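Intended use. Records such as the Putative TMV resistance protein N-like entry shown here are meant for training and evaluating sequence-to-structure methods. They are not intended to support clinical decisions.
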Amino acid sequence: ERLQVLDVAGTAIMLLPSSIRHLKNVRRLKLGGRKGMVSQSERQDFMSLVLPALWSYRTLCVIDLSDCFLLDGAIPNDLGCLCFLGILILSRNNFVSLPGSISQLFQLRQLYLVGCKRLEAVPEFPRFIQEVYTNDCPSLKSIVVPSTKHSSLSRVSFINCLELSKNQHGDNIADILLKYMLQGITNQSSIVVPGSEIPQWLEDQNLGCSASTQLLPSWCCCRQHLKGVVVCFISKFTIVSEIRVRFKFKGHGDRELLSKHSIHWKTDQNRKINSEHVWLCYAGFTTFNFLHQPDLLCPNELCQFEVTVVDCGGNEMLGIKKCGVRLVYHEGKDRSGSEAVDECTCEIDRN
């Protein structure tokens, strides 16, 4: 009864014994890891793991059911009763849909649905979800778009989900997701979806891996109105392992001030990407600590803000089609600190 971690990954267990209900204090349950037991051609028809009712395991914090060949109905409908569940890993399974009760997991922070080849729809995200990874799901056609109540959502990835961009909002899906993420409480957000266009409201766009925006002479005096920066770029590479976005302030006389802060993505080693993708990210300016030092920056010294997409070694990233950037101000303010008339704020959806 004191057992807290149950790891039977890599075994041939298909039915959990009824006596498992006596494990009242299990925190971590790992049943996955059987993908090497059958060939790729056999995976779609391999017998699914049979799960018991979950209401007796309310202490669970982490569940890993990856590579369990789960079919529709294999995940119990009482999944939502797991009030302490923080991480749910359902990657590489055979279900077409997920139980709607997943939205009731109010403590869930991370959801993994990578490589679910048959998955067609994702239900509403739990309210306090932070990260969703739904890569390599070629049948995925629809998701329930997050709303303002998903204020903690900070990272969403739909790499190689090509049907999603064809069937739901097209290239606008990244734009729609970012709208709600900007209204949240996170200081950094990132989205990756198939697509080939940078949102039009990112006015400062450039071919290649870098883009810049001009700073008005009065920007230093009104920088307290800055909310952050939005960066978007289009990739056309086929293999990638790590991507970073580097921030730099430029001044007159070739003076440069490179921020130590950057946004980065890490993927599986040498991940294959099957088409052009939109990478959209936001970084709050509270992460740039030097911006809050009143005597450090002067309007006469800095006149440009530049972003560059680089690899893990700091070199300019190859395979970037175009890049865009825009400063984001608190609602109702523009870049000069005056009342905004037509300026990008935290509510960036103009349609």
